From TrEMBL:
Residues 3-64, 208-242 form a coiled coil. Pfam families: Spectrin. The gene is Utrn_0. This is UTRO protein. SMART domains: SPEC.
Length: 254
């Protein structure tokens, strides 16, 4: 009777493993929204816990069969053979579910990381847009133009590492058919805004550089003119002080 019950337990265990495999490993999942992906991750975590909880039952079953085989070799040996098959299938099921759970957790982590990088780069684009707008109505002063140029250049020196991460993470998920529509839409919008703002910022940078160069040249010319006028004023003053008649002066002084 004990052998019959153990044989029944083995059959039930094998049936449960077959159902678990069909439910968790053979279904075709399509992750078209973050909610679907998150639900799949949680479901696979529960599946992993469910399978691992059966480990105690498997161990008890194993101990009982080995004990029976020791006491009654004739009826226990066949059960040992069946047990080995069940143990092998159980270990395989555990490994496969662990693997799928790990994969889904990695995919979810990849999606969250992509969102974080997009948030960082969007904040940078907002800052860049603000700096560009501030260069629109500058006072016609060299210091103001120089400060605006330096401020814009400091934002433009932003490293490209985050954009590389966005591209690689997005492509990894899209290649896996995961959230591909949503990610493609997000990347397209981000890249379009990045191209537009970066080109506008570089164009404004060039304009400010040219404006600054012109103002510096004008300032230099005014400085030279001022120095020349100062020299001429000093010379004329000396002529007046010495009461030199205008007709005695060189033509240019007259």
């Amino acid at each position: 009777e004990k052998a019959v019950n153990l044989k029944k337990d083995l059959a039930e265990m094998q049936e449960w493993m077959t159902q678990a495999e069909e439910e968790y490993l053979e279904k075709d999942f399509e992750y078209k929204s973050p909610e679907e992906l998150e639900n799949a991750v949680e479901e696979m975590k529960r599946a992993k816990e469910d399978v691992l909880q059966k480990e105690v039952r498997v161990k008890i079953l194993k101990d009982n069969i080995k004990m029976l085989a020791t006491k009654v070799p004739s009826s226990g040996q066949d059960l040992v053979t069946e047990l080995n098959v069940v143990l092998e299938n159980y270990q395989l099921l555990c490994n496969r579910i662990r693997g799928k759970c790990h994969t889904l957790e990695e995919v979810w982590s990849c999606w969250i990381e992509l969102l974080q990088y997009l948030d960082l780069e969007t904040a940078w684009l907002n800052n860049l847009e603000e700096r560009v707008q501030l260069t629109g109505n500058l006072p016609d002063k060299l210091d103001a133009v120089n400060d605006a140029l330096e401020s814009l250049e400091s934002v433009l020196r932003h490293p490209a590492d985050n954009r590389t991460q966005i591209r690689e993470l997005g492509q990894t998920l899209i290649d896996g058919g995961i959230l591909d529509d949503i990610i493609s839409e997000k990347l397209e919008a981000f890249n379009a805004r990045y191209e537009e703002l970066s080109h506008l910022a570089v164009s404004r940078q060039i304009t400010l550089e040219q404006q600054l160069q012109t103002m510096r040249e004008t300032d230099h010319m005014l400085q030279v003119l001022q120095e020349n006028l100062t020299d001429l004023d000093r010379q004329l003053t000396s002529y007046l002080t010495d009461r030199i008649d205008a007709f005695q002066m060189p033509q240019e002084a007259q």
